[in-house]
Write a structure and sequence with these properties.
The complex is a heterodimer of chains A (476) and B (206). Chain A is of the alpha/beta class. Chain A has 16 helices and 18 strands. In chain A, the strands form five sheets. Chain A has a five-stranded parallel β-sheet with strand order 16-15-14-17-18. In chain A, strands 4-3-5-6 form a four-stranded parallel β-sheet. In chain A, helix 2 crosses helix 5, helix 13 packs across helix 15 and helix 13 packs parallel to helix 16. Chain A is globular and about 55 Å long. Chain B has 206 residues and is an alpha/beta fold. Chain B has nine helices and eight strands. Classes of the chains: A alpha/beta (476), B alpha/beta (206).
């Protein structure tokens, strides 16, 4: 029996893992049961081919939930998708899920959105579950105390066919964040500061559990931002123990348990947090109070510095490889070593993505924008993470704050985070972005991405350059 | 179904930059393809060709002498980033069957196993040493049944492969079949107890 799970010095990760072991294999891997599978149009066409070739269907159709998000346009939703490949890919998802009876949220539905925004919104994501999705930012769902991980297309097929995957147990890494985040400093800044410190491979092979008062005090949306970025530190999964904040956020969601079943679920979820005597394989401690607003200067999320810092100088680095990499990143980004990063002019601003496309993110950006205008040289875009986020924002009048300032107000999707639709940078354009990756070409070929929080991106839109949010006075 | 991998003899391509992510290996715009044809055309597309479509002659994947290479030596964090399996499909489609690096993106590593792409993890200094020898014309030989990887006749790694993983590479396989044919009774048995313990996860299912 997989329950109960208390008092044996186990971590949250081990409790969820242990409660999902189907069998231990001879080769040391574990066949792990997968409770839930999120699907989108880009990573699943080949997965369905694998089922069709065998003439089989999903083991449990109701354990799946599908939505188009990556390739879909963020405007003109009343028209057929203009890009023929994107149209075909979205139609293929629709055919596949219809044939197999998989629950589906179509493009025209107000619940449509980025998988990692929509899943939690619907209560599809729950504490204590295992969840897979053909997308690396599936770590987002760890904010609920779910063991959630990204997989490839083959594994999407396996999950559908068998409701299980062969996995190897990860090491555990505690990231303790004590103290309070200063004013103007967000979960995004904390995530960037952590990755800058431990590196893009710093958590490779490990499951991160975030602990400490700063985490306990965080809203669910901030927790999702933090867990979302864990993959950028190389982590296999990220976890935050479910607590009253989690339960309050989930209660009443359409797919969350109801009535007596809710009480029973919560009783179980309360047994999940790591035992006080549990040991982790690695441990990192961060003092929240010392974190400043961060931006990236290079082409890896680990290339992050405080907004009031100086762009690193490769000449000062003792290691030849590091020197070469930093120089290459600076050349790509068109930046000068030793100059302040603040004031770097931007051409574009993107507010959205599974990292920062939730209602609180849009509110934080709108608070900076209210009563101001986007700098004339800047093209600024807000892309809500889901149709429900968009609707809620419009009910609060946030859309008008943005549009009156000169922002474009779009429909939900991955948009310029992955640049698979028309929302992309032109070569050489520089973007203040709330997304999660500043890789070369990520937001469009030869585009230059600076990662930051929504408030910082909003500030960049207003001033036309990278700006310390702490120095922005009230709108005149 | 992956193509069997038993032995190979090949020169190696070297890409020693750290954190070569899956966006570099397979740019996102090509993810709109639904089928798996022509994956090799997309491999390192934006590094092999400039914005005007001209070939970048000094990219190692454009070196005609290395077109037949089946071994890639890479820097740390190879395959980090997006989960896209297309990155692995493109490498295999090109002809690469072995990647040697200090460490790999986690999802990339999972995708590699399922497509017969052998990943060999060696310390950074060892990778750099192998790259130097490879660039000097060294030839790799893989003998999978012997779990041996050698360079210019000298063994450089004993491959840490379980019996089942070895068999998967030797025979070419599809993991779905393994699970469906051998493990579904265990999945169903687990499911029954899991359902009793956490019935809210099965609400509405008969």
């Amino acid at each position: 029996m997989p329950m109960p799970a208390t008092g044996t010095g186990r971590t949250l990760y081990h409790k969820i893992w242990d409660s999902h072991v189907v069998r231990e294999r001879e080769d040391g891997s574990t066949l792990l049961y997968v409770d839930r599978h999120l699907l989108h149009e880009v990573s699943t066409p080949q997965s369905f081919v694998a089922l069709d070739r065998r003439g089989i269907g999903p083991h449990r159709p109701a354990a799946n939930l599908a939505v188009p998000d990556h390739a879909v346009p963020t405007r003109h939703r009343n028209r057929p998708i203009a890009d023929l490949q994107a149209r075909a890919q979205t139609a293929r998802l629709e055919e596949n899920v219809a044939r197999h009876g998989i629950p589906y949220i179509p493009l025209g539905d107000r619940r449509q959105g980025i998988v990692h925004v929509m899943g939690p919104e619907q209560g599809f994501t729950l504490p204590g579950i295992t969840l897979a999705c053909g997308d690396s930012h599936t770590s987002t769902h760890g904010a609920f105390g779910a063991l959630a991980f990204g997989v490839g297309a083959s594994e999407c097929g396996i999950v559908m066919a068998a409701q299980a995957l062969a996995q190897r147990r990860a090491g555990t890494m505690a990231v303790r964040v004590e103290g309070d985040l200063p004013l103007g400093v967000t979960a995004k800044d904390l995530a960037l500061a952590l990755i800058a410190r431990i590196g893009a491979n710093g958590a490779a092979g490990h499951a991160i559990e975030y602990l400490g008062r700063a985490i306990r005090d965080m809203t669910m949306e901030s927790r999702m931002t933090l867990c979302n970025m864990a993959i950028e530190a190389g982590a296999r999964v990220a976890l935050i123990a479910p607590d009253e904040t989690t339960f309050a956020w989930l209660k009443g969601r359409p797919m969350a348990p109801k009535g007596a079943m809710w009480d029973r679920a919560v009783d179980y979820w309360r047994t999940l947090p790591s035992d006080p005597e549990a040991r982790f394989d690695k441990e990192v401690v961060l003092n929240a109070a010392s974190v400043a607003p961060h931006v990236t200067w290079g082409t890896s999320p680990e290339d992050a510095i405080a907004i009031d810092a100086i762009i690193p100088d490769p000449a000062a680095m003792p290691d030849a490889h590091r020197r070469a990499r930093v120089q290459r990143a600076l050349d790509y980004m068109g930046l000068k070593a030793g100059a302040p990063i603040a004031g770097t002019p931007v051409d574009a601003v993107f507010i959205g993505s599974c990292t920062n496309g939730r209602l609180s993110d849009l509110r934080a950006a709108a608070d900076v924008v209210r009563g101001r205008k986007v700098a004339p040289s800047v093209r600024a875009m807000v892309v809500p993470g889901s149709g429900l986020v968009k609707q809620a924002a419009e009910a609060e009048g946030i859309d008008r704050v943005f549009t009156q300032a000169g922002f474009e107000w779009r429909d939900a999707g991955c948009s310029m985070c992955v640049a698979m639709n028309d929302d992309r940078l032109e070569p050489g354009q520089r973007c203040a972005s709330t997304s999660n990756r500043n890789f070369e070409g990520r937001q469009g070929r030869e585009g230059r991405t600076h990662l930051m929080s929504p408030a910082m991106a909003a500030a960049a839109a207003i001033t036309g350059g990278l700006t310390d949010i702490r120095t922005m006075g009230p709108a005149s | 179904m992956s193509t069997p991998l038993i032995t190979l003899t090949s020169r190696a391509i070297c890409l020693m930059d750290p954190n070569i992510d899956t966006d570099i290996i397979f740019p996102a715009r090509f993810l709109l393809k639904i089928d798996r044809d022509g994956m090799d055309d997309c491999l390192f597309r934006d590094r092999r060709f400039d914005a005007t479509g001209r070939m970048v002659p000094d990219h190692p994947f454009n070196d005609p002498d290395l077109r037949e290479a089946q071994v890639l030596i890479a820097g740390p964090g190879f395959g980090c980033g997006s989960s896209r399996e297309q990155a692995v499909w493109a490498l295999v489609d090109w002809g690469i069957r072995v990647v040697i690096a200090p460490d790999f993106g986690d999802i990339f590593a999972g995708n590699a196993r399922k497509n017969g792409l052998l990943l060999v993890t060696l310390p950074e200094a060892a990778c750099e040493d192998l790259a130097r020898q490879a660039q000097a014309g060294g030839v790799f030989a893989l003998d999978l049944p012997e779990r041996s990887l050698s360079l210019s006749g000298k063994e450089v790694a004993r491959l840490d492969l379980s019996a089942s993983a070895l068999q998967a590479f030797l025979e070419g396989w599809d993991e779905i079949d393994v699970i469906l044919n051998r493990e579904m009774p265990a999945v169903r048995a687990f499911e029954a107890s899991h359902r009793a313990a956490q019935p809210w996860l099965y609400a509405g299912e008969g």
